[in-house]
Design brief:
The chain is an alpha/beta fold. The chain folds into two domains: about 120 residues, Rossmann fold; about 130 residues, Hypothetical Protein Tm841, Chain: A,domain 3 (2-Layer Sandwich), CATH 3.30.1180.10. It is built from eleven helices and twelve strands.
Length: about 290
């Protein structure tokens, strides 16, 4: 007997193995290509990026969305176990993932059983939407209600990312040299520019003061979440690069001072991290 609704999403969400296994989620992998970094020392891509910079290597990782074939394989697998499939993708304004998933669905006779949902978010922000969908499925909601509530949740998810150094965005052509220099000047004064996602696109959110990016990220979440009604609680997901201790410090602050639920502290996907660089720290929060 098939279950009601199964979930498919990308590995960029950073969902834990436990969450994936318990909820029988099918994960589609994005692609990172960096032949130049294969033999560099380092336990992860971020450490390797630091080594590459020291060695004067100017070629850094390249990323690409999953192919339609990748989604097709995931759809075919989930269709065997579930009546309906909910595929929650990276923002269509940041990646071609949604388009690849759409092409894959069109290849199937059972395409009416597959529902595509554009998260208009990424990484830990996208993960919060998946967690919301899991809750709704466990409540026994029908797919139409799940889609409706997830759509309403998009505007309630706040995603922030702070960079250790803007040079990685600059190297990738996503930030001008002039703007990168301004960011560095602010950081020397312990003023950290915050990037976020609004309407599916990465945008500058503002500047937050802190002794480091962990404190700045906490203050950003604290100041915005305080605007909620007093009886409202928040859920936070944290994404780190090669700075796990900084992520744990952030977790401690959020739990102690905001009394928030933190279901996920995850290694930030190299697909995202290859652009923002080592030392970056991200978090997303939503009211619950």
């Amino acid at each position: 007997m098939r279950n009601s609704v199964g979930i498919i999403t990308e590995e960029t969400t950073g969902l834990s193995k436990e969450i994936v296994k318990e909820n029988r989620i099918e994960i589609v992998s994005c692609k990172v290509s960096w032949p130049e970094g294969e033999n560099l020392p380092g336990e992860n891509i971020y450490q390797k990026m630091r080594e590459a910079e020291k060695m004067g290597i100017k070629i850094f990782p390249k990323t690409s969305q999953p192919s339609p074939k990748d989604y097709l394989s995931a759809f075919q697998k989930q269709l065997k176990s579930f009546e309906k499939i909910l595929c929650i993708t990276l923002s269509s304004k940041l990646s071609g993932s949604f388009n690849s998933a759409y092409q894959a669905r069109e290849m199937l006779k059972e395409k009416e059983r597959i529902f595509l949902f554009d998260s208009l978010n990424a990484t830990v922000g996208q993960a919060l939407l998946v967690l919301k969908a899991i809750e709704l499925i466990k409540e026994g909601k029908e797919i139409e209600e799940i889609l409706k509530e997830c759509q309403e949740s998009i505007s309630k998810i706040h995603f922030y990312i702070f960079l250790e150094d803007p040079k990685w965005l600059e190297a990738g052509g996503r930030l001008s040299h002039l703007v990168a220099n301004w960011v560095r000047k602010f950081q020397k004064m312990h003023l950290f520019p915050c990037l976020g996602i609004k309407n599916g696109l990465v945008k500058a959110i503002g500047i937050t003061k802190g002794k480091d990016i962990s404190e700045a990220l906490f203050r950003q979440i604290e100041s915005k979440s305080k605007k909620l009604a007093k009886n409202k609680k928040i859920r936070v997901a944290i994404g780190y690069t090669d700075n796990f201790e900084m992520a744990k410090n952030l977790e401690k602050e959020i739990k102690e001072k905001l009394k928030a639920e933190i279901p996920l502290i995850t290694f930030l996907s190299p697909v995202v991290g290859a652009h923002v660089g080592p030392g970056s720290l991200a978090a997303a929060w939503t009211e619950i």
